[in-house]
C-alpha cells in the first residue's frame, strides 16, 4: 500500500496504527519517531517499527505518508521541523482531537506538492504511551477526515484506505463542524469528569474515603474519563476554546434549569429530560457505538 510510512508520536494512537501497519504489511518500511528517547527505546523493545529514531527530519526523508500523532499543542513544532525534509508528493496526516487549530498549525508548513489530510480517529482509552496501543482500537469506530479545499482526491483516498485497513468507518466533515460536535460529545464530558473528580479530591478525608468506597454508583465511570492524559487534554481545551466555551454555556443553562426544577419540585420537567436522554442512549446502542 505504501513504500515508506513515518509515524511521529508513538503513544496510544501512533503505536496502535504502527501495530496494524506491521501486522497487515501495509508499508515496506515503517519508521517510528518520537521526541522522547525513553519512548524510542520502548518502541524499539516492543518491535513496533522497522526503524525508530528521535530525529524527526531523518525520519520523514523519502516517506510517502507521514502521520503526526503528538499532542495538539506539539503539532506546530513537529510540522515546522519536518517541512524541509518532506519529499515532493508526500502526504501528511494527523490524528489530533481538534481540527481547526491543527490545520492552522500544520498547513503553513506544507509547501505546494505536499498534501495535508487532517484526521481524527474517534477511539481511545484513558491510557497513553507505546505499551497502551492495540490493533483493535479503531474497530468499528469513526475516523473523521477534514480535507482542505486544495487537498487532492488521491491524498484523501490514500488516508481513507489506511483507516479502512484499521477497520475504522470514515466520515468527511468540515473542520469547524468537527470541533463543535466533538466539543459536545467528547470535550465537555471530559471537562465535567475532571470537575466532578476534582471536587471529590477537595473533600474532607472521611467523606473522600467513602466516595472511593461507594464509587460504583456512578462516580467510578467519571474517574476513568478523568484519568485521561493531562497534556493531551490541556492541549484540547486550549485549542478548541470557542467551541468548548459555546457548549459549556449551553450546558450551564441546562444545568440551571434542572437545578430550578429540583428546587421547585417540578417532577414533570425532570421526567421529560430524563426520558429524552434515555432515547439518545438507545440510538447510540442501535448504531453500535455503545462499547
Ligand atoms: P500519547 O499516548 O500521549 O502519545 C503522544 C506521543 O507523542 C508521546 O510519546 C510523546 O512523547 C510524543 N511527543 C510529544 N511531543 C512530541 C514532539 N514535539 N515530537 C515528537 N513526539 C512528541 O498520546 P495519544 O493518546 O496517542 O494522542 C496522540 C494524538 O492523537 C493527540 O493529538 C490526541 O489529541 C489524538 N487522539 C487521542 C485519542 C485518545 O483517546 N488518546 C483519541 C483520538 C485522537 P512524551 O510522552 O515524551 O511527551
Can you tell me about this structure?
The chain is of the alpha/beta class and 291 residues long. Helix content is 53%, strand content 13%. It has twelve helices and nine strands. It has a six-stranded parallel β-sheet, with helices on both faces. Strands 7-8-9 form a three-stranded mixed β-sheet, covered by helices on one side. Helix 1 (12-23) links the parallel strand 1 and strand 2 (27-33). The radius of gyration is 21 Å and the shape is globular. The chain binds NADP nicotinamide-adenine-dinucleotide phosphate. Residues 8-14, 34-36, 39, 69-72, 74, 77-78, 95-97, 120-121, 124, 128-129, 229, 232 line the site of NADP nicotinamide-adenine-dinucleotide phosphate.
Question: What are the main properties of this structure?
Answer:
291 residues; alpha/beta; Rossmann fold; 6-phosphogluconate dehydrogenase C-terminal fold; 2 domains; six-stranded parallel beta sheet; three-stranded mixed beta sheet; 12 helices; 13% strand; binds NADP nicotinamide-adenine-dinucleotide phosphate
Amino acid at each position: 500500500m505504501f513504500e515508506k510510512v513515518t509515524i511521529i508520536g508513538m503513544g496510544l494512537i501512533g503505536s496502535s496504527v504502527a501495530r496494524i501497519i506491521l501486522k497487515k504489511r501495509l508499508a515496506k518500511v515503517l519508521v517510528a519517531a518520537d521526541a522522547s528517547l525513553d519512548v524510542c527505546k520502548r518502541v524499539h523493545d516492543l518491535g513496533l517499527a522497522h526503524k525508530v529514531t528521535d530525529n524527526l527530519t531523518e525520519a520523514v526523508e523519502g516517506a510517502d505518508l507521514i502521520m503526526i500523532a503528538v499532542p495538539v499543542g506539539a503539532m506546530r513544532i513537529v510540522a515546522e521541523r519536518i517541512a524541509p525534509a518532506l519529499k515532493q508528493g508526500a502526504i501528511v496526516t494527523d490524528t489530533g482531537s481538534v481540527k481547526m487549530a491543527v490545520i492552522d498549525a500544520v498547513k503553513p508548513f506544507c509547501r505546494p506538492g505536499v498534501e495535508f489530510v487532517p484526521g481524527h480517529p474517534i477511539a481511545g482509552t484513558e491510557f497513553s504511551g507505546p505499551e497502551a496501543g492495540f490493533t483493535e482500537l479503531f474497530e468499528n469506530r469513526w475516523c473523521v477526515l477534514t480535507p482542505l479545499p486544495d487537498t487532492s482526491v488521491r491524498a484523501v483516498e490514500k488516508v481513507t484506505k489506511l483507516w479502512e485497513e484499521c477497520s475504522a468507518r470514515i466520515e468527511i466533515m468540515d473542520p469547524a463542524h468537527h470541533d463543535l460536535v466533538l466539543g459536545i460529545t467528547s470535550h465537555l464530558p471530559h471537562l465535567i469528569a475532571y470537575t466532578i473528580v476534582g471536587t471529590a479530591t477537595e473533600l474532607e478525608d472521611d467523606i473522600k474515603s467513602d466516595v472511593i468506597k461507594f464509587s460504583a454508583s456512578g462516580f467510578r465511570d467519571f474517574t476513568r474519563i478523568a484519568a485521561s492524559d493531562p497534556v493531551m487534554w490541556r492541549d484540547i481545551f486550549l485549542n478548541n476554546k470557542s467551541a468548548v466555551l459555546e457548549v459549556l454555556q449551553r450546558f450551564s443553562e441546562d444545568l440551571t434549569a434542572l437545578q430550578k426544577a429540583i428546587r421547585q419540585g417540578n417532577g414533570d420537567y425532570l421526567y421529560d429530560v430524563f426520558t429524552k436522554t434515555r432515547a439518545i442512549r438507545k440510538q447510540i446502542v442501535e448504531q453500535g457505538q455503545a462499547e
